[in-house]
Amino acid sequence: VDIAREAADIILLEKSLMVLEEGVIEGRRTFANMLKYIKMTASSNFGNVFSVLVASAFLPFLPMLPLHLLIQNLLYDVSQVAIPFDNVDDEQIQKPQRWNPADLGRFMIFFGPISSIFDILTFCLMWWVFHANTPETQTLFQSGWFVVGLLSQTLIVHMIRTRRVPFIQSCASWPLMIMTVIVMIVGIALPFSPLASYLQLQALPLSYFPWLVAILAGYMTLTQLVKGFYSRRYGWQ
C-alpha cells in the first residue's frame, strides 16, 4: 500500500471520482480569476503610464502626486482582494485554459489606451471647464483625476471579468460587488473628508459629478464595444 501511495499521482480519500471533477473545476476557476487580475492590472497600468506621459508633456504641474498614486493603487488593490471569490462564466470552466503571454500583450494594447482616452478627456474637463489650469489650482485638477482614475479602475474589473454584458448577463460575486462599492464611496469621499488637506486633495464642485457619470458611462460603453470585437477576433480567456 505504501509503495502504491508513493507511485500514485493522486490519492483519493473518498470512494468517489466526483472529487476529481470538483478539483478540475476549482482549478479552472482559480486560473480564470488569476488571469482576470493579471489582465486588468497590466492593461490599467499601461494606460496610466501613457496618460501620465501625455499630461506631463503639456501640463505646467504634475497631473497627480506620487502620494495620490499610492493611495489610488492601495484602494484598487483592496477592491481586488475579493477576486479569488468571484464567479466564473460556464464557458471558462467547460474546457481547460492555457497561459498565453502573447495574448496578454495584445490585451494590453487593445484595452490600455481606452483608459488613456478618458483620462485625456478628464484633463480637458478639468483644464477648460473647471479652469484648473495653473499651479495654484493644481490640487483641484489632481483631485478630479484622482476620483476618475480610481472609479474607472475599480469598475473596469466588472467589464473585463466576463465576455458577456456585465451586471445583466453576468454578475460578479457579492464579495467583489461589495468591495467595489466600498472603494468607490471611499474614493469619492476622500476629497471631502478631514484627511483631504493631509492628502493634498480638495473638495470637488457638485457640477463635477454629472461629468463623472458621463465619463464612466462612456468608458464602460467603449470597453464593452472593444471587448465584443476582441472576443470575436481572438477569443476570450
UniProtKB/TrEMBL annotation:
The keyword Transferase does not apply. One of its GO terms (cellular component) is plasma membrane. It comes from the Bacteria. The chain crosses the membrane at residues 49-71, 107-130, 142-160, 172-196, 208-230. Residues 61-228 form the Cation-transporting P-type ATPase C-terminal domain. It is a multi-pass membrane protein. GO terms for molecular function: P-type magnesium transporter activity. Signal peptide: none annotated. Keywords: Cell membrane, Magnesium, Membrane, Phosphoprotein, Transmembrane, Transmembrane helix. It is found in: Cell membrane. This is Magnesium-translocating P-type ATPase. It comes from Escherichia coli.
